[in-house]
Write a structure and sequence with these properties.
220 residues; alpha/beta; 8-stranded mixed beta sheet; two-stranded antiparallel ribbon; 5 helices; 14 strands; binds cytidine-5'-monophosphate; ligase
Length: 220
């Protein structure tokens, strides 16, 4: 129906930061609020999609009509995404930590005379790239986000190629752009066909517009 063009489509959205433990009481995190990802999940649900929102730690309320799975780490996020498959559409908005601390200890690290501990970092799985390279059951449309501070469009195009996703939503997170943690977002949508420059909009409107763009991609 025109009001619910994504009815029956299964969608996975990742959102928020991840927390990577150092020991039982400490972790490494980032400044993602989850706001843009939650708005995307809500906008897709409003268009009738069956949305599973895999969320890192945030303080946000679950949007109407969305099933939510809460996770902390990148590994847990990847496992939750895999469990939510199959899906027609995946939108990876989460700010996944690139690294985690190797061999998280079971005990709190103590301050000792032996000196300051060194943290050894190892690479986290890339959830977006993993989905994009699936040989069987790959979602038909995979959308990644790219936060850049310079050469936004060139870097985003390169990211689309590198990750193997279909679209990249690129935004300028330089201090002048103010997107990170802010209310507005100015984005460029990079597809195989080219790019669209959208006006600066509140994150909710970016999400609505993206959801409608996805619906029109599916021809409805
Ligand atoms: O490489 P970069 O982190 O800038 O790429 C951003 C995009 O990749 C976002 O869509 C993000 O959700 C996704 N990503 C991911 N898993 C990672 C790192 C990034 O899904 N480990």
């Amino acid at each position: 129906s025109p009001a619910r063009p994504l009815k029956g489509r299964r969608v996975i959205v990742t959102a928020g930061p991840t927390h990577e433990p150092i020991d039982p009481v400490r972790y490494i995190a980032n400044r993602s609020s989850g706001r843009q990802g939650f708005a995307v999940a809500g906008a897709l649900a409003k268009l009738g999609a069956e949305v599973t929102l895999v969320s890192g730690p945030t303080h946000l309320a679950t949007p109407d009509g969305v099933s939510r799975v809460d996770v902390e780490t990148a590994w847990q996020m990847q496992a939750a995404v895999r469990k939510a498959l199959p899906a027609d559409i995946a939108v990876c908005v989460a700010a996944v930590a690139d690294w985690r601390v190797e061999g998280e200890g079971a005990q709190k690290i103590k301050k000792t005379k032996a000196g300051i501990p060194a943290l050894n970092l190892v690479e986290n799985p890339d959830i977006l790239a993993g989905l994009s390279s699936m040989k069987e059951g790959r979602p038909a449309l995979i959308v990644g986000f790219a936060a850049e501070t310079e050469q936004v469009i060139d870097f985003a195009r390169a990211k689309r190629d590198r990750k193997g996703c279909d679209w990249i939503v690129a935004n300028d997170v330089s201090a002048a752009g103010g997107a990170m943690g802010g209310a507005d977002n100015q984005i460029h949508l990079i597809t195989r066909e080219g790019e669209e420059n959208w006006p600066r909009l509140p994150k909710e409107q970016v999400a609505d517009r993206l959801a409608h763009r996805i619906a029109s991609h599916f021809g409805v």
